[in-house]
Amino acid sequence: MRENEQKRVRDQVVSLFSSVLHVDVPSGGVDLFEAGILDSQNLVDLLLSIEQQFEIEILLHDFELDNFRCVDKITSLILEHQAPKHA
Amino acid sequence: MNLLQGWVRKQAESRPEAPAIVFDGQQVTYAELEARSNQLARILQSKGCRRGDRVCFAIPKSPAAIIALLGIMKADCCHVPIDTSSPVARVTKILQSSEPRFVLGVDAAANLLRQPLDWNKRPHSLEIGWMEDSSAVAEGLQAAFTWKDLSAYSDEPLNFRNTASDPAHILFTSGSTGEPKGVVITHSNVIHFIEWAIRYFAIDSSDRLSCHSPLHFDLSYFDIFAAFACGAELHLVPPEVNLLPNKIAEFIRASQLTQWFSVPSVLSYMARFDVVKHHDFPHLKRLLWCGDVFSTGSLIYWMKRLPHVSFTNLYGPTETTIASSYYTVPDCPANDRDPVPIGTACPGEELLVLDDKLQLMPVGQTGDLYIRGAGLSPGYWRDELKTSAAFLRGDLDHSQRLYRTGDLARLGEDGLVYFVGRSDSQIKCRGHRVELGEIETSLHSLNMVREGAVVAITSEVFEGNLICCAYASLHPDRDLTTLLRSQLSKLLPSYMLPSRWMCLDRLPINANGKVDRPALKQLFLNQETTTLGRSKRRSEPTCNSSVPDTTRMILDDTTTTAGESLEGAGLREPRSSAAAGRLPS
Predict the structure, then answer these.
(1) pLDDT for B516-550, tens place per residue?
(2) B156 Cβ neighbours under 8 A, 6+ residues apart
(3) Which chain B residues are within 8 Å of A40, Cβ to Cβ?
(4) Residue intervals in chain B for CATH 2.30.38.10
(5) Domain count, chain A
């Protein structure tokens, strides 16, 4: 169940990269900063679209580069924020 | 001072152990900076570099990069910074245009340099120096020296043959025809500005200055040489710090900076996410910006937060060296619609608002902005045509050259100059100067679209410009956006990549049969509004804590109207409970 949820969220994140930032993310573990995929502008675009799509609130203390470093980490962040709702 | 490197020698003699550069936990003293750059100059000379030769360096911002630019100047050569985040195609163009005698690199730039500097293809006169001890150079790059070879050379001061009017560096900026153009800047151009700036801002050896701009951006020369002229500490801001607004604030705090100089988009980004506390950054004395228009709303946020800090707007294109005018904001503006002027000319410079016959425009009327004075570049590198088109001998006074900025401005009743807009398709995007024509040329060179056009719109969400690209695909019904973006990223630096895209059956055409750019802009503006509208609806029902904070901050700003309070402008105090979580600890 948990794995399914994780996959569902990860697929949605990958499709946000494609529909909002217009980039294909090669795999869940790719370092988005090193690959030059995320910079300060599209990070905000991504953040807003994540908040909108998943109806979550990302607070400033979540603003750690590691939380956004790869699709897998972003997926975990979203799942953490969704956790209380599904508990 | 007649040569930029002279300041480092002076500090090395008087305060050898004082820190010159602070970066990532490392400190480089003035004595080390002087010694290493002397050795680099000697090794370059011994390998055949002669006065006036160009030496490119592709080194991310670091002490090695600063040593490189000093060592190159000490070898009587002219340095050409290469943006290591640029794609290979663009770097190749810059190398071809500048015809360097040497290219200095580090491991992080090896992949970028390997193709253009392939040993079998590059001219025999071009050699490579590696500013690290590394084996990466072996693969196809074959360096004439590496960092460890420096120690074999004397670190004693050199005698220089260059004079103040010799080029110090060439900075390549976006060119409308698709070729980056090189702006030649002399030692005296920079020295003139620095000498004024350190007097005006009263910078001294107790200062800790930020070095935030990338080194291929002329603003960084203010940070570097103002610090070295005064024996102050230069704190290099690591590129990763830029990505998140709270990290930038933490950097300013932890480094106890006394001066922060960046582009408005960074300051607005920090204001948006409300990362500055009241009376934050207790050591900070000055906050400066340049390169773009800073919205008054964000300025008010900063001035309210930091009443102990002075705020100065600097203005000037690369062609007139760092900045040509300044305006220190006397009081916090009352209204977020009040424009912040670009101010008055720095001593030795003149800002002139002229008509198309090069006559002064009456006060209050918009005209073309021209600059003349000590900061004027000798012109574009090996491009007489572009040089003579932009650097004129005006009717006002034939004895002095005038630079046509392409900016529109007006002189206010208060004697201050106000920026109005651009007269061409050059834009500023997050402080970067971008020719929309260069993006269009690159787009068409891909041969993937039937038609394509690039326009910029002012974003309500992000202050400043958004680059938008509309195209008609060669293959009907096929959305090529992701592919186009990916192909463009091989030709253009990331800051020039469009962030908004539209795939259309055909582009709107005006009465003259040309692409109707105003109509296109409107299409993109509508698209932005629709996106915003969707977010907004989510926040309407209750506007309570279930609305994401970041979204709310941004949306609130879009509803600002003249005369509204700070609270209405979204620049209000963060609301209690959520606020605690938003502020960095």
Answers:
(1) 999 999 999 998 877 654 443 333 333 333 333 44
(2) B38
(3) 242-244, 265-266, 269, 430
(4) 348-424
(5) 1
Residues in chain B with CB shorter than 8 Å from the CB of A56 are 548
* CATH number, position A15: 1.10.1200.10
Quote the crossing angle between the two packed helices B264-272 and B245-254, to the nearest 10°.
Answer: 100
For B404-429, the pLDDT digits (tens) are 999 999 999 999 999 999 998 999 88
User: Cβ–Cβ of B243/A39 closer than 8 Å?
Assistant: yes
Q: What confidence score (pLDDT) does residue B142 get? A: 85
State the Cα–Cα distance between residues B312 and B299, nearest whole angstrom: 10
Q: Would you state the torsion angle of the CA atoms of residues B458, B461, B462, B466, taken in this order, to the nearest 10 degrees?
A: -40
Q: How confident is the model at residue B580 (pLDDT cuts 50, 70, 90)?
A: very low
Question: Cβ contacts (< 8 Å) between B462 and chain A: which residues?
Answer: 41, 44
| Confidence check: pLDDT of B574 > 60 | no
Fold of B348-424: Luciferase; domain 3 (2.30.38)
pLDDT of B585 higher than 60: no
CB contact under 8 A, B269 and A51: no
- Which pLDDT belongs to residue B150? 96
* Fold classification of B426-531 (topology level): GMP Synthetase; Chain A, domain 3 (3.30.300)
- Residue A87 covered by a domain: no
Distance CA B71, CA B77 (A): 9
Distance from CA of B326 to the nearest CA of A (A): 27
- pLDDT for residue B137: 65
Residue B464 has pLDDT above 50, yes or no: yes
> What residue of A is the nearest CA neighbor of B502?
A22
Q: Determine which of A57, A64, A65 to mutate to test the interface with B (most B C-beta atoms within 10 Å).
A: A57
Over residues B367-394, the mean pLDDT reads 94
- pTM > 0.80: yes or no: yes
Which residues in chain B are classed under CATH 3.40.50.980?
A: 6-236
For residues B352 and B392, is the Cβ–Cβ distance under 8 A? no
ipTM value of the model?
A: 0.85
Contact B581 A61 (CB under 8 A): yes
Q: Which residues in chain A touch residue B467, judged by CB atoms under 8 angstroms apart?
A: none
pLDDT at B194 over 50: yes
* Dist. CA B547–CA B544, nearest whole Å: 6
CATH code: domain B6-236 is 3.40.50.980
Nearest to B494 among A36, A56, A59 (CB): A36
Q: Indicate yes or no: CB of B582 within 8 angstroms of CB of A48.
A: no
The per-residue pLDDT for B569 is: 30
Contact A58, B582 (CB under 8 A): no
> Which residues on B lie below 8 Å from A59 (Cβ)?
549, 578, 581-582
